[in-house]
């Protein structure tokens, strides 16, 4: 599941890293560029609850394998487009493929993490940051060597990962069983409406900030220094350090709980990101290493907390946070691009970072609303 997560999320990194190239190739402005990132991320997230519902009903239908192939094909063809509408269509196809993958994969990762879900989900999430980080490193030299057609590199890992998943379906992938007469997903969500809403709000605001940096960090570096390679290195440092951060967050959460990890990481991550748009270029890569650890530490734990609230519907719970929450928050790229066209990219990224203050407030309300309640972490059905 983690390897599939690495492959599927590498598709978004290709778009982020080559965005300056696409801006020139298609003669588009930053608002339109941000719109592409927003379309990919919103489509790949906001439709996840639909696929989460399908997974909970048909848990071994091969959605994840199909999603891997669809996402890799759509993103692989982006280097051949000649117009903005064509790019929109391919980004939309890739986004749907990414959405189809996640609910099934994260539900199976949770099942495989019996007894240590915080850690297991954290391991699963490292696949995402590793995939985006590795692609941001690989795609620049390939694009320098082969031009825009280097985007076809996404097809090979997609086919390999899909083959592994197809092999897994008749062997070890299993449904999560529910007792007859148990509550429906809607009834279960009503019982935890306030804390679940706070987790959703937290995910939206945090995603808005993270999306802005994933989308525009390479572009910011190019505008300030003219070096695409340095921009890719800064993004790779941020994402690869994020893999470490997710593991650290999972290890600490296994000992003290997910909620404290989320709170501390939100505060520390906000302080780490605020100076980034203004840093001297020489400091950017090492700074992003530290920022990545702090910013990504709560990534998996927000989903783990949602699964604790809805232990019988982990597919639905995961798709709400990774889908609706991250999907709406992904509009942060469009917001940042619009502000950047008027006030400059440095001001825009600083302003977007302040959304983290709202995420911290939502975390406080979540913790207050669940105070005194027993943890469902070990509950398996």
Task: Indicate the topology.
Blueprint: H1 2-17, H2 19-26, H3 30-46, H4 48-57, H5 63-76, H6 84-112, H7 117-146, H8 155-168, H9 185-191, H10 193-225, H11 228-256, H12 258-273, H13 281-296, H14 299-309, H15 314-329, H16 332-343, H17 345-353, H18 355-369
Helix pairs in contact: 1-5, 1-6, 1-7, 1-8, 1-10, 3-6, 3-15, 3-16, 4-6, 4-15, 5-6, 5-8, 6-7, 6-15, 7-11, 7-14, 10-11, 10-14, 10-15, 10-16, 10-17, 10-18, 11-12, 11-13, 12-13, 12-14, 12-18, 14-15, 16-17
List keywords for this structure.
single chain, mainly alpha, Growth Hormone, Chain: A, 79% helix, 0% strand
Structure overview:
With 381 residues, the protein is mostly helical. It has a single domain (2-175, 184-369), classed as Growth Hormone, Chain: A. It is built from 18 helices and no strands. Helix 4 runs antiparallel to helix 15 (314-329). The longest helix is centred in the middle third of the chain and has 33 residues, at 193-225. It is globular. The protein starts with a helix and ends in a 12-residue tail after the last helix. Residues 375-381 have low confidence and may be disordered.
